[in-house]
Sequence to fold (180 residues):
Amino acid sequence: MRNSKALSEVVSTLILLVVAVLLAAVATYYATNITMTRTENEQIALSKPHIWVNGTGAIGAFKLQNLGGKDILVDKIAVRGVEEAWADVFIYRVPDGTSITDDFTVCNYSAMTGSWAHDGETYDAVTGDVPLQSGNELLVFIKDPDNVQLDDIGTAISISVYTNNAHYITEVNVESATTQ
Fold:
């Protein structure tokens, strides 16, 4: 005897197939949403990189812009893969609503202590991780980056900036500094 109240095999299979596809779609959407919300808003631009060197020592400089939609925290800066001590990093916070378009000029190596002035801006020593608000920019100088010697002039080396979510890298040719 056939039970007339049961669903046919075709309809049952179709229902199970639709449920499986819907579950897979929900899982994919959830995974994509989690991934995108943690990384899509962070975007940094490293521009105007320089490394100068002479008999006195080396100096690095670059401009860091937060182009993303959320504030970031710079965890570390590395030159040629070697992490720089915060005591050797100096920053100038560009005021809100302004932008620096001029390129860097080499600065006086011996003046790079505590707070010091260069090209009309006052650079302050960094004591720990550096917060950078969305839409703002920093000018960064590094005193005596490790692994940069006089014989590196003309060599391409990397400058890396690390945040909680990402690692940003640029390459620069080492230049001879005539005035330090």
In short: The CA atoms of residues 26 and 32 lie 10 Å apart.
